Amino acid sequence: MSLLQKGVDRTVIALWLGHESVESTDMYLQADLKMKERALSKTPRAKLRNKRYRPTDRLLAFLEQL
Fold first, then answer.
1. How far is the C-alpha of 26 from the C-alpha of 30, rounded, in Å?
2. What sign does the CA torsion over 18, 21, 27, 28 have?
3. What is the maximal distance between C-alpha atoms in the chain?
4. Segment 7-38, tens digit of pLDDT
5. CA–CA distance from 46 to each of 11, 33, 50 (Å)?
6. Residue 2 and residue 59: Cα distance in Å, rounded?
7. CA-to-CA distance for 22 and 14, rounded, in angstroms?
8. To the nearest whole percent, how much of the chain has pLDDT over 90?
9. Which of 2, 4, 42, 61 has its CA 20 to 30 A from that of 14?
10. How many secondary structure helices (H) and strands (E) does the chain include?
11. Domains of the chain: which residue ranges?
12. Rounded CA gap, 54 and 48, in Å?
């Protein structure tokens, strides 16, 4: 993880570890919390409305009959 965080390419890490393919190295390169925070800080915020779900009277009546 420290090599990945320092910017070393994952193909180089795979070669150093003696892995046959880069894909076999991926399972060891799980992002830690700092890497996730940096990635999230680079993404735009989604424009979502905070809206609470309100069931219809018809749906509530149906559920009460169950």
1. 7
2. positive
3. 65
4. 899 889 889 889 888 888 877 777 677 788 88
5. 33, 21, 11
6. 54
7. 6
8. 20
9. 42
10. 5, 0
11. 1-30
12. 17
Phi, psi of 64 (to 5 degrees): -70, -25
pTM of the model: 0.45
Tokens of 10: 């994952």
Q: For residue 17, which amino acid is it?
A: L
Higher per-residue pLDDT: 64 or 5: 64
Retrieve residue 42's tokens: 């680079």
**Buried-state track 6-37, b at ≥16 Cβ within 10 A, e below 16:** eeeeeeebbeeeeeeeeeebeeeeeeeeeeee
Task: Give me the amino acid identity at 12.
Answer: V
Q: DSSP assignment of 27-58, as one string?
A: TT----HHHHHHHHHTSPPP----------HH
